[in-house]
Every structure is written in C-alpha cells, then in structure tokens.
UniProtKB/TrEMBL annotation:
InterPro entries: HotDog_dom_sf, MC_hydratase, MCH/BMMD. This is MaoC family dehydratase. Pfam families: MC_hydratase. Gene3D superfamilies: Hotdog Thioesterase. Residues 153-178 are annotated as: Disordered.
Length: 178
C-alpha cells in the first residue's frame, strides 16, 4: 500500500479520492472539543442547540472536521512530506452533524521544485470534504514540501528507518528450519 508520494509522482490536475470515509460520533466531537478546550454549547449542549440555534441540533466543531479531512489525505498526499508549509485557506461551507459520514478528495493545483534544495519540491493542493449526501462541508488549500526520489533513496527508500527483525531465542529467523 502506498503511503504518500514523491515529488515526481504528483501530476498537476490529478485528483485523489481518500478512502475510507469517517462517521463522526457525538463522542468523537465531544472528546475533540474537550481536548482542545472548546466548550461552546453549540457543540456540547443539546438543549442549547435545539432551543437557540438555526440548526436545532449540535454542530460538529469545525477544527475536528478539518482534522479528519487532513488526516484522510495523508496516505495520498503528505505521507512522505518533509514539511507542511502553509494552510492557504480554510472554509467551512456547511455544517457537519453527529452521525454524518465525511469523505474527501484532493486535487493537485500546482507543483514546483525547491529553489534552495534540489532533492525536494512543493505541491499545492486543494482538499474538498463532503458528507454522505455529497454536500460539501469544508474546503482547504495547502502547500506541502515533498521529497524527490533522490531524497528517499538517500534515506532508505520507500520505508526509511524501518528496522529489520533480529533473530533471537524467541524467533530463529526467516531461514531457520523447524
């Protein structure tokens, strides 16, 4: 399974559809709110949401929606990234509710080689998140520094830093006969 891409593997105009989707539970939303100290009653208080908001129910906190979509994109976009350079824009265009399932896809807008180091480049991408009905809920653009193949080869290839299992008294090794 591929995890991220090298600079050479990105094509301007390509779209990567992230899989699988993620159903947002009330627990997920509340835990994220509590971990990030966002105690707004729109997210945590059912009575408040039902009685005083236009939605009539709790809305999932936007930063969690963004975080889910960003995480979904990692295997396709930034799994080999050297650095996330910039979140250029982030728009929440419709609410997400408990029980909604989020899906995402990312399109490559542009790419260019680094001016300072010849073993890397920058990709400019736009991620669109939508729910189970196809309703777009979040759109963001970012710039990611990714390695070229030469960078990866110099650091161990596809899975840099991966150790080799060492035979010992519990495992004699792959060539041992029983």
């Amino acid at each position: 399974m591929q995890f991220g891409r090298s600079y050479e593997e990105f094509e301007v105009g390509a779209t990567y559809k992230h899989w699988p989707g993620k159903t947002v539970t009330e627990f997920d939303d509340h835990m994220f709110c509590l971990l990030t100290m966002n105690h707004h009653p729109l997210h945590l208080d059912v009575n408040y949401a039902e009685e005083t908001t236009q939605f009539g129910k709790n809305v999932v906190v936007g930063n969690y929606v963004y975080s889910i979509l960003l995480g979904m994109s990692v295997p396709d976009i930034s799994g080999k990234a050297i650095a996330n350079l910039e979140i250029e824009s982030l728009r929440h265009v419709a609410p997400t509710f408990h029980g909604d399932t989020l899906y995402g896809e990312t399109r490559v807008l542009d790419k260019w080689e680094s001016k300072s180091k010849d073993d890397r480049g920058v990709v400019h991408v736009e991620t669109v998140g939508y729910n189970q009905d196809g309703k777009v809920v979040c759109i963001f653009r970012r710039k990611v520094m990714v390695p070229k193949n030469s960078y990866l080869e110099a650091r161990g290839g596809e899975q840099p830093g991966r150790p080799v299992p060492q035979p010992d008294k519990n495992w004699p090794g792959p060539d041992a006969t029983e």
